[in-house]
Amino acid sequence: MRLPTSVPSAGSFPSPTPAPFRRLIIGAIAVLVVIVVIVSLNPFYTVQSGTVGLKTAFGSVQPEALQPGLHFAIPFYQTVVTVSTQPQTVTSNETAATHDLQTVQTAIAVTFHVDPAEASYFWQNFRSFDTVGQRIITPSVSNDVKAITARYDAQELVTSRDRIDAEIKDLVVASLAPYHLTVESVNVANFAFSQAYEQAIEEKQVAQQQALQAQYTLQQTQISAQQQVVQAKAAADAAVETATGSAQATVLQAQAEAKANALVNASLTPEILQLRALSRWNGVMPTYLTGNTPLPFIGATPGR
């Protein structure tokens, strides 16, 4: 068989793509593939406000904390974890015994936060706030409350409340210091005692109030009696003074009358007496005269 000897014309085959354009297409495809890979691997991490980031490389944590913002981590090698630096509160209910062996209950609320410089230590040792609360804070607070309340009697927990609260707070802060936790506050709730002890305290207070009332009543009675004594003495003194004054007035009056009578007697002569008798005589002579009876206003007896 004879093969055809004719050659196809130039227009029957497509023209080849120029090399520069082909390289451009390949480069664009490669860039697109890289972008898709990067997006799928998500090597960018956002650290939110109120937290810090920590880069980990196959479980190893870098000590430097990442501040809030956008950060890059090498895919398959590095990851970024976040640790909150906002205040956290752990509350525990504690039961302890006082120095006089009374059972007391209270609630302790510890508010703390993780310092950004200590975020790496926190992540390596605790990872979560629940863990640090259960493993560190609650046991420490329990021991501290028992240690402080054992120094005081039950009554002192009430009368010296401010001082005992301060001692508990100081001891809790010192106990948590080795764990690189920044304690902001330690709030101690009211101390609650057993029902029997509270009833005994109430009865004691009632008895004290009654004793104070009795003492007050006695004082009032004594004051009233003293007032009555003073009033009686004042009345007696007044009566004595009145009697003395009255007697002195009588004496003075008698002395005055005696002096007046003496003056009158000294001034009365027989002529004045006779003249006064004549001024009062009604002119009637006595009916009967004895032998020695003087005549009226004359002073001579009959027959003289």
What does this entry look like structurally?
The protein is an alpha+beta fold and 304 residues long. Among the domains are: 24-84, no CATH class; 88-193, Band 7 domain (Tetrahydropterin Synthase, Chain A, 2-Layer Sandwich), CATH 3.30.479. 52% of the residues lie in helices and 18% in strands. The protein has 7 helices and 9 strands. The chain has helices spanning 19-41, 119-125, 129-149, 154-159, 161-176, 195-267, 270-280, and strands at residues 44-47, 51-57, 60-61, 69-72, 78-84, 88-97, 103-113, 182-188, 192-193. The strands form 3 sheets. Strands 6, 7, 8 and 9 form a 4-stranded antiparallel sheet that branches. Strand 2 (51-57) and strand 3 (60-61) form a beta hairpin. Helix 3 packs across helix 5.
Provide a compact summary of the structure:
With 304 residues, this protein is an alpha+beta fold. 52% of the residues lie in helices and 18% in strands.
